[in-house]
Structures are given as structure tokens and as C-alpha cells.
Amino acid sequence: MYQSAAVLENDPIAPVVMQFVSPLWGFPGCSEYTLQPAAREGVWWLQGVTAPYPTFVLSDPFVANPGYSLDLTPSDYALLEITDPTDVIALVMLALPAETRGVVTANFRAPLVFNLVTRRAIQMVSGNEGFSMQQPISLSCYPAREELAPLA
To answer: What is the number of alpha carbons within 13 Å of residue 84 lying toward its C-beta?
Structure first.
């Protein structure tokens, strides 16, 4: 069984550098990113360490959707060098609305999967067509963290 991103909560201030096996779609020159906590538990900043320094907001999919599941293939296991599934977390990309009252959506169809031991990461596409690329979610399911700056 894969872990919730809550395992990263043990050291919420230290950034973790992750190496993507293949660059994220649309960012061919960026493969290293820092993973840092945002102002809500289970929400993370993913920031490129090289120009153009792309930045994404990620969240723990198991908080917003307790029925969520991953379908990693043997190839995914090899790319991430997984020896223990409990070393793996998945996070989904969030799209934040331009307007204050807009809807936050999450891409449950193409999660980012991280091996916390090897620091390797991939963006995989789930074979489960029931997962949406633009699933509305409420950030209220992620409790506020007092010690960090808010998302906006």
C-alpha cells in the first residue's frame, strides 16, 4: 500500500529535492524540483531548481478522495526503483482559479509519484478512466498550517 503524503509532515520546513525520471509535460529542460510544504497540511509546492523555475501546487489525493488508488505498472516500479511500496507517495497537481470564488481542480488522472528513498519521481497516467483531470475539490479538507505562508 502506498502512503499518504503525511509522511513528509515530520520535517515540514526542510525542502526535499526530487529528480524526475522524465521531465514533466511541457517543461523539457526541468527535471529537478524542490518539494516544500504549503500553508495547508497535505498541500505542497513543487518548484523547479533551474530556469524557468516552474512552480506547481500539489495535494495529497487520498485526503480529497479517500477512494483514490494508484495503478503503478512494473515499469513504474523500475523507473522509481521501488523496493518497498511504503517509500512511495502520490500527489496531484492543483489548478487554482484566477478569481477568488473560482473552483480549485485536481488532476487525479495523472498524479506525480515520488519514491522518498531514491528521490526519484514520475508523472504517470492512470488507467482508471473514472479519475478526472479537472476534478473540483475543496481546500477546506486540508487543515491550515499556522507556521507557513498561505497559498494566496
So the answer is: 6
Q: Please check whether residue 62 lies inside any domain of the structure.
A: yes
CATH code of residue 81 = 2.30.290.10
Length of the chain: 152
Q: Which strand (E) or helix (H) includes residue 74?
A: helix 74-80
Could you give the residue ranges of the DSSP H alpha helices within the chain?
61-64, 74-80
Mean per-residue pLDDT over the chain, rounded: 87
**Per-residue confidence (pLDDT) for residue 84, from 0 to 100:** 95
**How many domains does the chain contain in total?**
1
pTM of structure:
0.85
Examine residue 143 and state whether it is found in any structural domain, yes or no: no
